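User: Could you go from structure to sequence for me? I need the amino acid at each position, not a summary. Structure tokens:
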């Protein structure tokens, strides 16, 4: 009887996990991953990818001057296997949340120690590990769905609508 009960609990748990994974894939902003090896360091960005859907993105859907989870759903995460340098600052190996504050002429990137959170609703600036700025650029081709790209040379860029902005990992 005990074996049957344990087996049933295990089966229901696995079923729930499977349904939860399927649920995320069916979201309007599905989960995505960008990854690369930069100078021997594994770099992984996990995020949810919203679509433009005919909306005005910059300054409207994503307001200027306010923190943004840089995606949809859960906060975007950045995981690095070794210490790296970003904008002259050392980032220790680990997993972090990645937020931005978009601006028309300049963006602020924020790396925060609290990675397991929904959006930026509970964002706490006192938990920031580093901040740095970057200049956005106009893309030659519009990007319907937001993506992150990481080159083997360490360039990390988020692209969405007609805009791209990024930073270099060394």
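Assistant: Here is the amino acid at each position, in order:
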């Amino acid at each position: 009887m005990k074996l049957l009960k344990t087996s049933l609990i295990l089966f229901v748990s696995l079923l729930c996990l499977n349904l939860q994974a399927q649920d995320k894939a069916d979201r309007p902003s599905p989960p995505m991953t960008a990854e690369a090896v930069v100078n021997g360091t594994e770099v992984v960005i996990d995020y949810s990818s919203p679509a433009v859907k005919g909306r005005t993105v910059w300054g409207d859907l994503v307001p200027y001057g306010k923190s943004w989870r840089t995606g949809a759903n859960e906060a975007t995460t950045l995981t690095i296997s070794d210490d790296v340098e970003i904008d002259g600052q050392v980032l220790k190996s680990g997993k972090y949340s990645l937020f931005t504050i978009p601006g028309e002429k300049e963006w602020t990137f924020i790396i925060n120690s609290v990675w397991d959170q929904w959006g930026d609703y509970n964002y706490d600036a006192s938990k920031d590990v580093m901040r740095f700025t970057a200049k956005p650029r106009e893309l030659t081709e519009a990007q319907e769905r937001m993506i992150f790209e990481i080159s083997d040379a360490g360039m990390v860029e988020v692209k969405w609508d007609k805009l791209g902005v990024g930073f270099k990992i060394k």
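One structural detail worth keeping in mind: The chain has a mean pLDDT of 89.
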